[in-house]
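task queued by scheduler; priority normal; single chain, no ligands, no partner chains; default sampling; output format set to C-alpha cells
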Amino acid sequence: MEYFRKLGIIEPILKSIKEENFEKPTEIQEKSIPLVLAGKDVIAGAATGSGKTLVFGSGIIKNSERGKGIQALILTPTRELAEQNAKALTKFSKYKPLEIVAVYGGLSISPQIRVLRTADIVIGTPGRMLDHIERRTIELDNVKILVLDEADRMLDMGFIDDVEKIIRKCPMKRQTLLFSATIPADIAHLAKKYMKDPVKVSAESYVDPKKLTQIYYDVPDSLKFSLLVYLLKHEKSGLVMVFCNTKRNTDFVANNLKLSGVDALPIHGGFSQEKRNMAMRQFHTKKAHVLVCTDVAARGLDIRDVSHVYNYDTPRESKQYIHRIGRTARAGKEGIAISLVSPRDYDNFRRVLIDNAIDITKKEIPNVEKVRIRWMEKPKRYGERHTGYRR
C-alpha cells in the first residue's frame, strides 16, 4: 500500500484499494495521480485497462462532498464504459460514500431524472447528457472536475460537437482531465480550447509486445468461417474476443459458432442495454468464453484474461487494429492476435501493415473440414428463426 500512499491518495480510498488487492500503481497512475491531486489539468495518453479510473477517481472522491450537488462529471463514449466507471468509483468511494449516477441512452429517462436530483458524481454518454441539459433535469453549476474519458473514441463516434456543448455548460473555473488512447489533431484542439496549461503524460502500451504473438492466415472466403471454428476448437485458450466490422456479421458469426458447438455470445450497438449487460455478465463469469463484437461495442469494455483476439474482419481503420490486439497480452500475460485475411480484407490489411509497422507471421492453413453455415437474411430482430442455408 505504500506505493499508493506515496502518490498522495487519501486514506478512505487506500482502504478500498487494499480490499481490491491492488499490488502497485500502473504507469499511468504513478505519473498522473500526483498531478490530479495537485489540481492540474491533465492530458493522459492511456488505453482501456491501464488503471485510469483510479487516476481521476482519486481526485474526484477527495474533492467531493455528499449532498453538495453534482461536483464531478465524466463523459464517456459508450454505455458500458459509463457503467464500468460508475462501478469502479462506487468501490473506491466505499469509505467516503457519494451518490454516483450513470446516465446513458437505451433506458427510460424518468428514473435517471429522479436520481440526478441527489447525485454528487455523474458519468454519462454525450447524447443522454444533452437530453438532460435540454430538459433542464441536470444542474452543472457546481462541477469542479470534468473528465473526458476515451476522448478519441468520442471523436470517432461523432460526439465532438455534443461534447463541446456540454463543456460550455460547466463552470469555467474547474479542473479538466482528458484521457485518450491517441491524441489526434481534433483532440489537441479541444484541449487547447478548454483546458488550462494542461500537463501531458503518457504510459507505454499496456500490452507487452514481447508476450504478444501476431499471426495471420490468407484464407479463401469460402473457408473463412470454417477456419475460425477449427482454431477456436483446437487452440488452447482462455477468454476469446472475435472482432467483426458490422452488426450483421457479428450476429452471423456468433449464431453459427453456437450451431457449431462453440459457446459464443454477440454484442453490438443494435442490442438493448439489458441484452448488452446480460451478455457481459455471462462473459465476465465465463459462462461463455467467446465474445463476438464490433469495435464500437468493445471499446471501453475492460475485460481481463483475454488470451486470444481474432480479427474475423480486418478493421477499416488501421488504428482499430491496435485497439483490438490491445485486448490481450496485458499485465505480463501471454496473448495471441490472429487475423483471418480473405480477398475482401486485402486492402484493409495492407493499410494495417503500412500504418502500424507490425511484426506479424503468416501461417499455413491447416486441414480444415468445411462447416455447414446457416445464412441470415436481414432478420427483424436478433434471435428469431432464420431461413436459408449455405455451405
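post-processing summary
- Confidence is low (pLDDT under 50) at residues 379-391.
- DSSP finds 16 helices and 16 strands in the chain.
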